[in-house]
Design a protein that fits this description.
Four copies of one chain form a homotetramer. By secondary structure, the first copy, chain A, is of the alpha+beta class. The first copy, chain A, has a single domain, classed as 4-Layer Sandwich (Chorismate synthase, AroC fold). Helices cover 26% and strands 23% of the residues of chain A. Chain A contains eight helices and 18 strands. In chain A, the strands form six sheets. A five-stranded antiparallel sheet of chain A has the order 1-2-3-7-4, with helices on one face. A five-stranded antiparallel sheet of chain A has the order 9-8-10-16-11. Chain A has a two-stranded antiparallel ribbon with strand order 5-6. The longest helix of chain A has 24 residues. Chain A starts with a strand and ends in a 7-residue tail after the last helix. In chain A, 67% of the residues are buried. Strand 11 of chain A pairs antiparallel with strand 11 of chain B, so a sheet runs across the interface.
Chain lengths: 363, 363, 363, 363
């Protein structure tokens, strides 16, 4: 399946950072889902670098829907979204073609593609490809909304600075989806931005974590083996460049707990079965239990930094150094948040379509 | 794909804990791979409960290979392994059919399968299904060995007790693959066992983490989007019951680092490109870089405990309590270790076959 | 996907003719489908050689369901069916391991599997594998029945002898599904049997065609590109050993028609849209139109014959001759009929599950 | 998988006839394959209506490659080809949105997509989508050429007029690939063209058959069950709009043969194993035997004709009549030929990549 994800609903990504365009094909989604171009644009703006915290590259992302949408709704046929590349300065990257950037895919890409890949601007490995993912994600999020399902992500940490945990989830989710820098605690936001600017000032970069919540998922979705909700979400989340860890519910801290502490007791509430805690992140046996889905994603610091680093020249096989001159972000955590929402929507639409069918999204 | 994993090499699991048998079908593996029944048996024995640390259920696991093997070698056709169920005491689980165990899949299974699933002993959700995965994994590990690739996992922690990190990886890997309780540091081993027995004595259970290393993987394997090495491994690892977190290389701690610290500098060593550190866990841009793969898996405490827990009666929708009477493990981390090796082998054989073809495993 | 077929509902086949067993794993089927072992047995008996028209090999086919069924109904988890091999005389086939039978897979199997395949009795290529397909097919046919969908196949020709075409389809389908030698016209049946016995008497074999009808399929099922109903059915039907042609509706004869003759006029009948003819076989644009599905399958004469044939010795690379001594069928058309029904049921359950979801089969 | 075909190499089609564009995404193909835009153009010109035999719609097909190609070679990442739609006259098709054309997908499309599909010009069902398939096919054919494999198709019949069968296959293949109207026998060509013009003059349309040959395929490619070479090719060929039958080698006529006549005797020739006849079309047990692949595809007459036909109004559910006024082809057999070559190349590249790996195409 390679650059395609999903069984019933599939997403394929294509394009290179400095090629003619990037884009996505979304197939298997039900007909009749609203496609709101304004909403797609606003989602894209969340991913786009827009201020001092990000690269100065101006990505207008003027997406074009090439098929699969008619009269403002999905037709049920494959949706192709193309985002032409503009504002490209290939010259900045000339050096990278031979000197591989530490932490980046320059070396592995050359190995995988036997030197035939387009190395300019990271080529097909560039984070820019996620713009196409976000555009498709906006349609998937609209499909979930139609089913009463909400996805929201906050920046749970930047470096050592932590946001507060989720409280009133519905209110928090709504607040987050209106923010550009998605933090729940205003004081944390200021400290996070300061940490990013401090890293930038030192020619360095900084990492962080995202925490995502999904509200409204019905119980009984997912598979016991392999296509577990955790497995599918993790598979998709690790596609976001720089993600190096994923945990559900209490995650790694569960490894330090006793069962009597970790288990979420069941309780009947308003005639429905719920749990009183949510250490499992809404997933038991790989299957949703009707509680909110909760998971965290660890994002490493952006690999491209202007500080001098040791590396090698792939042509001469000699040790050398590199100071990245191109435009680059001191932090991508805040930009990755809408990408996390998008891949989450992809996984959930896929699993829901398997259970309820393509027709299950028709009103 | 549901209960099947993989693209070029696929594994399908079937069976219920208290049904006639469990098993696996492995397809797409090259012909000519050695199938050593003694090795399969020894791998199964690593997963099997064997002492005071585990459930008293005696699982002899007398596997039967139903096809795909001829003259001690894979034929290239699907390999089916069946492990008949014996020593089954269904009576113990009668209560569970209506009272759902906290932390277990009783409730989600009933929701997913509309009440038609076999609830005895956890049915298709039972950890017992992993015996089939381990049997198939032994063949996959042999295929990797034929390519000079070694997989090894140690128990990096039980509760708060930690093993030492990997040192000389080749030596550590060899040592681990000869041990039943796979710990590198003998002192840690004693403390871990004591922690497990202490939880058991209190009618409770305990979690932990596993750390896996893969030696000998060539550079250039994996895909940039979706079928990244991290995404594929995580997808498979989250299938191991009780896994709630996966991280690669320095993982979550990368989120607290600066780029200048996190990036692994490249270096030419003996004419080959390597990195001087391995924070990325041997994977850049979703693709192997030729360094050892390194990843950690978080395992929650076994949900079934004898302590009384609050739960609900799924039939009457009333709150109630439950004290599990059946046989159960106070800890499954040490048993899960060979399962982690097995799913790792599955993912790697799949990715290698995509790059080199089915014929790529022929000598 | 190799030896697996399907997207939402998948079937995997395993086993070798003279190995320990053959079998199938069926995954993705809804929970709650009736599994009637008596019906499975009766379907298997239709495939089994039972009289002078077939090989004397006695295949009792005592199938064992290893998982996925509980209290006589599907659980929704993978169903594994194992059919142990008995009455195996491998000695008969010793010669074939080096002399490749014309028309058979001895040579191509050795090429594909680099000589590691099990050549005894055709190994994994043996028509015997279809017994597992038929056992799984019985469950799939039950699932369709639950949705009001009937599949029936008649022997439309043996050599030059033709059956009458379908008339009253519902009545014809019911009559066919009660017959061992599924012919609509009694006079044709006698001539067909005579043709088979005549070929047998001459140490030869004979081919024929099957025609299948599906009643009760709703309109709107299938995909416009690639996963068309025709494409999916043909893909599966060509898996039946010896099938070399598939055509839908008027099929190849459409290539000799004008559009005004070929097009099926639409008509409103009892408030529903129907067509007055059915040259398209119930499929337009790859999608069902609510009319009966109709298609024909061409089956070549059994390749294994006792007459002397020219062939080569694969070891010495010398020309030689071969007179098959093992047990073999002079004709498999009448036996293949229940296999055609089974793969048809697989394709339709897969396509219906995509549209209506796994839950769409729940009452 | 829906609008995607293939396992190791996949092709996804998107777009609607009168939407902004149509296109294709090709993934999994090896890096380093030559992408000759001039060759793509020449292949597209073979599909494009160009004379009195076809619709007057001028389709310039100015394709744009959006990614996956660098310095004139494939990079190994997904290739996206977009063909913008020009020269669109939607007004002609207004009537069709409610009156469904007999033989066309207007009715089934409306059923499948619950009325949300774009009905203009056949929407996603339009034969125009095959332009994208042909553009991708040109790259796939180049990949095969690099491996020494040639694909060629001739019009074996139009209505009752037949071309001569293949003679010297290499010479015939070369001759065909240089022709616009691909017929081996010049006299047959004139008669075929006359038959098409005669159907056109009567406001009618006409069908035909294509026969494809593949030279240079190695033995041992394909799978015994489901992903047989026949099954994969048929699956893809039935995606070509209007295809209603596919047969391999002697095909349906094998059903009228004896085994002694149908079986292709093996023979050692120049030290290699070959067969003296090719009734099996180069495929035994679903696997290539090293002989030329040979198969025929039946194409029904174009459904859209200007003659008056009975149909229904989908809105009012009343019987009515329809005389198609839009531009349409009296015959598409000659145009479909390059589409047959393209899907054949897709299937073969997919199967070869499974056996030899992505790296198997590297020189």
């Amino acid at each position: 399946m390679k650059n395609t994800f999903g069984n019933a609903v599939t997403l394929t990504l294509f394009g290179e950072s400095h090629g003619p365009a990037i884009g996505a094909v979304l197939d298997g989604l039900a007909p009749g889902i609203e496609v709101d171009e304004e909403y797609i644009r606003s989602q894209l703006s969340l991913r786009r670098p827009s201020d001092a915290l990000s690269t100065p590259r101006q990505e207008a992302d003027p997406f074009e829907i090439k098929g699969g949408v008619f009269c403002g709704k999905t037709t049920g046929t494959p949706i192709c979204i193309v985002i032409p590349n503009g504002d490209v300065k290939s010259a900045d990257y000339g050096e990278i073609a031979v000197k591989c950037r530490p932490g980046h895919a320059d070396y592995t890409g050359a190995q995988k593609y036997a030197g035939f890949n387009d190395p300019r601007g990271g080529g097909h490995f560039s984070g820019r490809i996620t713009a196409a993912l976000v555009a498709a994600g906006a349609i998937l999020l609209s499909a979930l909304k139609q089913k009463g399902i909400t996805v929201a992500t906050h920046i749970s940490s930047i470096g050592e600075v932590c946001d507060r945990p989720f409280g009133d989830m519905a209110a928090d989710a709504e607040a987050l989806n209106g923010k550009t820098f998605a933090v729940l605690d205003g004081a944390a936001e200021e400290k996070m931005k300061a940490a990013i600017l401090s890293a930038k000032a030192e020619g360095d970069s900084i990492g962080g974590t995202l925490e995502t919540v999904v509200l409204g998922m019905p119980a009984g979705v997912g598979e016991p083996w392999f296509d577990t909700v955790e497995g599918m979400l993790a598979h998709a989340l690790f596609s976001i460049p720089a993600v190096k860890g994923v945990e559900f519910g209490a995650g790694f801290s569960l490894s330090r707990m006793r069962g009597s502490e970790a288990n979420d007791p069941f309780e009947v509430k308003d005639g429905a079965i719920t749990t009183t805690t949510n250490n499992c992140g809404g997933i038991l046996g790989g299957i949703t239990n009707g509680m909110p889905l909760l998971f965290k994603t660890a994002i490493k610091p952006t690999p491209t930094i202007s500080r001098e680093q040791s590396t090698v020249d792939m042509k001469t096989l000699e040790n050398t150094t590199l100071s990245a001159a191109g435009r680059h972000d001191p932090c991508i955590v805040h930009r990755a948040r809408v990408v996390a929402d998008s891949v989450t929507a992809l996984v959930l639409c896929d699993l829901l379509t398997q259970k309820y069918g393509t027709d299950g999204f028709l009103k």
